[in-house]
Write a structure and sequence with these properties.
The protein is an alpha/beta fold and 254 residues long. The chain has one domain: TIM Barrel. 36% of the residues lie in helices and 29% in strands. The chain contains eleven helices and twelve strands. It has an eight-stranded parallel barrel, surrounded by six helices. Strand 1 and strand 2 form a beta hairpin. Helix 1 runs parallel beside helix 3. About 2% of the residues have low confidence.
Length: 254
């Protein structure tokens, strides 16, 4: 049985980790370097680093802090924000990323996924999808959740897999920061149409939410969260021990 991954997420703006609710009302949390070091040491399986305003502001991802974060940790690092070309992949990978997350850049240029997969391999290409219900339809949003693309999320994820993406991060805008549980309905809809690993993001409020996530849908590969880890509401060691006690396979923390 494959182990389920627990992944903290650093949403970075102006060099600081921030967090909001439903992608709005962002407030500062801490230094990304300090948090990254903490998560690497306390049992996180991977780390995600998003420069959350790069696409909206039309600029490249900041690399100075990224290099410092990458040099500090000893777990796989996925990086996203302002990734628009294969050259952006190259730049971020050279800063120490293991995988590169594409979102708005792939919406603007769907060929980017295939190009990057051919150059760097599918295992390096993560398709991050920000999804919100619009008139009952799962709809893709771009630019940090600011722009409704009108694209059907299920069809977009199928296209991403066909183009060569190796992993999906499903960010539910509806449940983001609300802390009432992951978006199980949205996750079921996605895992029914893709064979790729799916990382659930948005809604974690307590340990029980992770138990519910993995028991409800065994096809979900990982749970991603931010504020509950950042503010010490859930410790990763406690989370993993409780998951193991509930029959969910995880990499143990010693």
């Amino acid at each position: 049985m494959l182990t389920k991954r627990i992944i903290p997420c650093l949403d970075v703006r102006d060099g600081e980790v921030v967090k909001g609710v439903n992608f709005k009302g962002l407030s500062r949390v801490s230094s990304p370097v300090d948090l990254a070091k903490h998560y690497s040491e306390c049992g996180a399986d991977e780390l995600v680093f998003y420069d959350i305003t790069a696409s909206f502001e039309g600029r490249r991802l900041f690399t100075d802090i990224l290099k410092e974060v990458a040099s500090t940790i000893f777990i796989p690092l996925t990086v996203g924000g302002g990734i628009n070309t294969p050259a952006d992949f190259d730049r971020v990978l050279k800063c120490g990323a293991d995988k590169v997350s594409v979102n708005s850049g792939a919406i603007k240029n769907p060929g980017l996924i295939r190009e990057a997969a051919e150059i760097y391999g599918s295992q390096c290409v993560v398709l991050s999808v920000d999804v919100k219900r619009v008139n009952g339809k799962f709809t893709v949003f771009a630019k940090g959740g600011r722009e409704n693309t009108g694209i059907d999320a299920i069809e977009w994820i199928k296209r991403g897999e066909d183009a060569g993406a190796g992993e999906i991060v499903l960010n539910s805008i509806d449940t983001d920061g609300v802390k009432k549980g992951f978006d199980l309905e949205m996750l079921r809809a996605v895992t029914e149409v893709t064979s790729l690993p799916v990382i659930a993001s948005g809604g974690a409020g307590c340990i029980d939410d992770f138990i519910t996530l993995f028991k409800d849908n065994d096809k979900v590969d990982a749970g991603l969260a931010a504020s509950i880890f950042h503010f010490g509401e859930v410790e990763i060691k406690d989370l993993k021990n409780t998951l193991a006690d509930n029959g969910i396979s995880v990499r143990k923390v010693w």
